[in-house]
Design brief:
Largest sheet of chain B: 5 strands, mixed
Order of helices and strands of chain A: HHHHHEEHEEEEEHH
Largest sheet of chain A: 5 strands, antiparallel
Helix content of chain B: under 10%
Distance between the termini of chain A: 48 Å
Oligomer: heterodimer
Structural class of chain B: mainly beta
Number of strands of chain B: 40
Chain lengths: 245, 550
């Protein structure tokens, strides 16, 4: 028993210099991998294999903190510190994209997002700004994929963003309703699907082919979204998008 | 006494209730029956004298057996619109149960929300059926064909940790929906979409942002992730043109150390102009909530005489064990009366509604508080009957041990700020019952106990019958005047949904969803370890009187 404690102290002392994922790996090994549970590196014990699991981060967090009643998974909110839970969630999220066991290696560890880049990311997804970038663009599995993928895009000023050409935009002429700018999603047999861009949140709409006409080209700009951010903020978002690439 | 004589007697009472339009008749057009949320029908073909002969007419199996069936069916012109936990929608023939169309919303594969994939119903209007989804979309379906017309992502569910479980409300040309997320690090809101195009018309954040009135009740950045979910359905008064909605608890739920202030508009009723989404008035029932006492449940709109004056009232039951009685024209507090027996979170209230003697959870120390986070009543709705001005409520006498903890909010993650363990009240035994109360005075007329956990909604009718169901699967009828059990039918699945009544071609039907599920439902085993677990399932049972009786 004493030997075990000695072994555990060393990694815990080192955690100050480690990344979230690395700290999480330490917590995982001493808590989740033990006994009959998730196995070393999440390769499965009696509890499920976690490599390649499908859960988003908020679900993983709630499972780690509160457990799953009736399934033998205890909640760890009273056993682990908040930082430890956060770290182990980070590690389990790494396992999600880690693929088969053989692929788990240092090369698979996600890049650590620098603080400056994180600022741009937070602005891209900023919830208090209704109609922020993520309302129409998706990065990874976050956001709505109405507009194009922006990974690797360069920065703009608000004016440049407003003036940016939008070649994807079409004009939709529905029966009995005014025309609106949209993005064509595709045809589904006799039906047409488009994103309606005329409100703050894009609306995915479906029309019978004989109920609406779609014309290439349309009048639309990023004016509303550009108005949500300052020049400096748009610069930061651009740096984040370059980093994502 | 004949019904006519009873009505006359009620009209002559000194506290006589004015005629109001909260009753349904042939249809069940909206979540709460009508926009006044009475859950009361004027149909009386099925009544206290003949309900013993009620028999199944047909049963519909949805096939979506995960998380039970919690919906309120909507009924219009003999067609039932029913939604399931994973956002399937069915249009059913109200006489035969035959499927007219069905629609499955494409949830991402394996999608599970912390707030559980569950759905409490659709709204129907303007030829469309509207539903909120487990991944936080609002979708419009053609009422005649079941074809999808539009959908909007209200906010990315993976980011916000929120979703939509409540039925939307159609007001004028808008479909209005709330959002869950009150136990997450999230900022709540109400959204109004154009029924035809799906375009967002307005969004009202339940937590004011910087520069807005009320933001000063949130120190620092606490407004960003302060909860205030709108996770149940509101009411609407067309004469006053006011939309009413209840706002849930503040986050983190049990620890207010980072949000010392009143935390507007959490724990409040808000009244909005439905066209603009602008706040007209608010009344905060629980400032700086630390007990998870959501104020999101039904707002029952009744015109009645109180203190000798006919007023436009709102009766508002919450988890906290009280019915708040407000003047719905201006939000004035008139009174609050307790409907549960075990209440210790406050010692009482002043005449103007201020809380006295708060018993707050502390960090690292156990505090026993009643009612529990599950509430003296949960979201499942009570019913109001104008026959004698009665409120029928599903009451739970449950306490809990609360321990607060310091917690840093991470957007979209759980943000409870503590733990709770459910426990029986001081009597040593969990109690659950249908309670019948005078809505204005709060005087209890009768209560009829149930065996374990009464968490289905209540339906009242002009036939002096009160319907609800229990976890053991029994759907039963009580005499509205005495609470006597008149009839019961074992559907085989636990009840966590909302029964409705309607009529087609002169024949009255009563329809109840069955099938156990929900977050609270999962606590059943820990509360009643000796009882068999309620049966899952997802079926609609429809009853009528045998043809020769009607």
């Amino acid at each position: 028993m004493r030997t075990w404690i000695g072994l555990l102290i060393l990694p815990v002392c080192l955690t100050g210099q480690m990344s979230r994922t690395e700290r999480g790996a330490v917590v995982f090994r001493k808590t989740c991998a033990v006994a009959y549970c998730h196995g070393p590196e999440g390769t499965a014990g009696r509890a499920p294999r976690l490599i390649g699991h499908p859960y988003p981060e908020n679900i993983v967090f709630s499972i780690v903190a509160d457990g799953i009643s009736g399934k033998g998974m205890p909640g760890f909110s009273s056993q682990l510190k908040t930082e430890e839970i956060d770290a182990v969630v980070g590690y389990v999220m790494m396992l999600r994209s880690a693929g088969p066991p053989a692929a788990v290696s240092a090369a698979k560890l996600p890049r650590v997002m620098p603080t400056e880049i994180r600022k741009g990311r937070d602005l891209f997804f900023d919830a208090p700004r209704l109609g922020a970038c993520n309302a129409c663009h998706q990065i990874g599995d976050r956001g709505t994929p109405a507009g194009p993928n922006l990974a690797g895009h360069t920065a703009f000023t608000p004016q440049e963003l407003t003036d940016l050409p939008a070649p994807h935009v079409v004009t939709v002429h529905p029966d009995g309703e005014g025309a609106f700018p949209g993005i064509a999603i595709g045809d589904e047999g006799l039906r047409i699907q488009v994103y309606d861009l005329s409100a703050v949140l894009p609306v995915r709409r479906i029309f019978h082919r004989d109920q609406a006409k779609v014309v290439v080209g349309g009048v639309w700009s990023h004016k509303y979204a550009a108005g949500l951010y300052s020049s400096a903020e748009i610069q930061l978002i651009g740096e984040y998008l370059r980093w994502v690439k | 006494m004949s019904n006519a004589v009873m009505l006359l007697a009620a009209a002559l009472l000194p506290c006589a209730l004015a005629a109001a339009d909260g009753a349904t008749s042939r249809d069940w057009p909206s979540y709460g029956g009508t926009h006044s949320a009475w859950r009361y029908s004027s149909l009386d073909q099925i009544n206290a004298a003949n309900v013993q002969r009620l028999a199944p007419a047909w049963v519909f199996q949805t096939g979506d057996y995960e998380n039970g069936l919690q919906a309120t069916p909507i009924v219009l012109d003999g067609v039932i619109y029913l939604s399931t936990s994973n956002n399937w929608v069915f249009a059913l023939d109200g006489v035969t149960g035959k499927v007219i169309w069905e629609y499955h919303f494409p949830l991402p594969q394996g999608w599970q929300s912390y707030y559980s994939n569950q759905n409490r119903g659709v709204a129907v209007g303007h030829g469309r059926v509207f539903m909120g989804t487990a991944d936080n979309h609002i979708v419009a379906i053609d009422q005649n064909t079941g074809e999808e017309l539009w959908r909007v992502n209200a906010e990315d569910a993976k980011q916000c940790g929120c979703n939509i479980t409540a039925a939307p409300l159609v007001v004028k040309d808008l479909v209005i929906t709330g959002v869950t997320g009150g136990d997450s690090a999230h900022r709540g809101y109400l959204s109004a979409f154009d029924v035809k195009t799906g375009r967002l018309r307005w969004r009202f954040y339940t937590i004011p942002g910087p520069g807005e009135k009320g933001n000063e009740t949130w120190p620092g950045e606490s407004w960003r992730l302060g909860g205030g979910a709108t996770w149940m359905t509101g009411s609407y008064d067309p004469d006053l043109n006011l939309l009413y909605w209840g706002v849930g608890n503040a986050s983190s739920d049990l620890n207010s150390s980072k949000r010392r202030g009143d935390n507007l508009y959490t724990g409040s009723i808000i009244a909005l102009n439905p066209e603009t989404g602008k706040l007209q008035w608010h009344y905060q029932e629980v400032p700086r909530d630390v007990w998870d006492y959501d104020a999101t449940f039904e707002q029952i709109l009744v015109d009645a005489t109180i203190d000798g004056r006919l007023r436009h009232l709102m009766f508002h039951p919450t988890k906290a064990g009280y019915i708040w009685v407000l003047d719905r024209t201006n939000g004035q507090f008139l009174k609050a009366w307790p409907f549960a027996k075990n209440i210790n979170w406050i010692k009482g209230m002043t005449e103007d509604g201020k809380l006295v003697g708060r018993l707050e959870p502390e960090v690292g120390k156990v505090t026993t508080v009643c009612p529990s986070v599950g509430g003296a009543k949960n979201w499942n709705q009570g019913a109001y009957s104008p026959r004698g001005g009665m409120l029928f409520l599903p009451v739970m006498e449950i306490c809990n041990d609360l321990v607060a903890r310091e917690e840093v909010g991470v957007e979209g993650n759980l943000f409870t700020g503590g733990n709770w363990v459910l426990k029986p009240p001081p009597s040593g035994k969990y109690e659950t019952y249908v309670g019948a109360f005078d809505a204005v005075t709060g005087a209890k007329k009768w209560s009829t106990p149930s065996s374990t956990l009464l968490v289905a909604s209540i339906l009242a009718t002009a036939g002096d019958v009160v319907f609800t169901g229990d976890p053991e699967g029994n759907f039963f009828a009580l005499d509205a005047r005495s609470g006597a059990r008149l009839w019961s039918f074992n559907t085989g699945g636990g009840h966590r949904g909302s029964a409705v009544t309607y009529s087609v071609n002169g024949r009255q039907y009563v329809a109840t969803p069955t099938g156990w599920g929900s977050l609270l439902g999962r606590a059943f085993g820990s509360m009643f370890p000796d009882s068999p677990p309620p049966r899952a399932g997802s079926s609609l049972f429809v009853f009528a009187l045998p043809a020769e009786v009607k």
